[in-house]
């Protein structure tokens, strides 16, 4: 009886999480101008790909897609490398003030992102970064949460591995590239997945820091396109197109992602 109740509760929770995706995908094939609360209207009687065609033939779509790729892929690569390097230093190296510096950096996470948006805008405007790729790439070169994850993960690796490499004459860089990085693949994949999803789906920062349509990423571009049309089916098609890359990345790195989360203690 107890298991039955648990299964029912889990099923209800699963349906609550899965239902929006069903609405999004079924609605994307529906030629419906306005949202209707009745679920029967979400299932297309005559499925059509016209909504996808309208978005894909838009002359700005390739530019928006390229912008999203640039401001996503570069931070993913840099975050994986720099977070691993900095996390290795905080996990395995000893220097004065290490704990104070690390926990001071980690405390920055407690500051809501919205509170920093005005100081950031003033700074980026002073640097003439507004409406450029720099405003999205430079602040995302590394993140303290990525460093925290790597540090937690590397603390579980025995120090004897480093000592054995030192005895063989390896330098710090050789140890990092040939010992630490290969052992850190699960944590690195987790950082990369978080970075990809966070940057690809980001709507807030591009809305603030872009002023021209040609610099819009896909999230903002599709949002402005939808505002102009107000078409429910078009909105769902845009959401589906934007969702596909993050879904594929998660599926591809799922094995490493789960392992990295469990071994780093980040739950």
Describe, in plain words, how this protein is organized in 3D.
Helices cover 70% and strands 0% of the residues. The chain has helices at 2-28, 50-56, 61-92, 98-107, 117-126, 134-137, 144-154, 160-167, 172-183, 185-200, 204-209, 218-229, 232-252, 254-264. Helix 1 crosses helix 13, helix 10 packs across helix 14 and helix 12 (218-229) runs antiparallel to helix 13. It is mainly α. The protein contains 14 helices and no strands. It is globular, with a radius of gyration of 23 Å. Keywords: Cell membrane, Membrane, Transmembrane, Transmembrane helix, Transport. Residues 65-253 form the ABC transmembrane type-1 domain. This is ABC-type glycerol-3-phosphate transport system permease component. Belongs to the binding-protein-dependent transport system permease family. It comes from Fictibacillus halophilus.
- The amount of helix comes to over 70%
Strand-and-helix sequence, N→C?
Answer: HHHHHHHHHHHHHH
Oligomer: single chain
**Count of alpha and pi helical runs:** 14
Output the structural class.
mainly alpha
Proportion in β-strands = under 5%
How far is it from the N-terminal to the C-terminal residue, by CA? 30 Å
Which shape, going by the Cα principal axes? Answer: globular
Low-confidence stretches: none
Radius of gyration: 23 Å
Count of DSSP strands: 0
Mean pLDDT across the residues is 83
Largest sheet: none
């Amino acid at each position: 009886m107890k298991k039955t109740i648990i299964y029912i509760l889990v099923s209800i929770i699963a349906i609550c999480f899965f239902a929006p995706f069903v609405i999004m995908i079924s609605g994307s094939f529906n030629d419906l101008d306005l949202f209707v609360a009745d679920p029967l209207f979400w299932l297309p009687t005559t499925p059509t790909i016209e909504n996808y065609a309208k978005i894909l033939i838009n002359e700005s779509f390739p530019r928006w897609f390229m912008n999203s790729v640039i401001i996503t892929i570069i931070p993913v690569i840099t975050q994986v490398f720099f977070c691993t390097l900095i996390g290795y230093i905080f996990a395995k190296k000893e220097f004065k003030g290490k704990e104070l510096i690390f926990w001071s950096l980690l405390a920055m996470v407690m500051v809501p992102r919205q509170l920093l948006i005005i100081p950031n805008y003033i700074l980026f405007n002073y640097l003439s970064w507004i409406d450029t790729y720099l405003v999205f790439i430079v602040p995302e070169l590394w993140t303290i949460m990525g460093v925290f994850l790597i540090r937690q993960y590397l603390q579980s690796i025995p120090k004897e591995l480093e000592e054995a490499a030192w005895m063989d004459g390896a330098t710090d860089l050789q140890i990092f590239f040939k010992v630490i990085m290969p052992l850190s693949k699960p944590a690195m994949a987790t950082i990369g997945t978080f970075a990809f999803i966070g940057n690809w789906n980001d709507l807030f920062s591009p809305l603030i820091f872009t002023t021209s349509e040609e610099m819009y990423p896909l999230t903002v571009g599709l949002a402005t396109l939808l505002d102009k049309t107000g078409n429910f089916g078009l909105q769902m098609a845009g959401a589906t197109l934007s969702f596909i890359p993050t879904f594929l990345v998660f599926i591809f790195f799922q094995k490493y992602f789960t392992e990295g989360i469990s071994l780093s203690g980040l739950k």
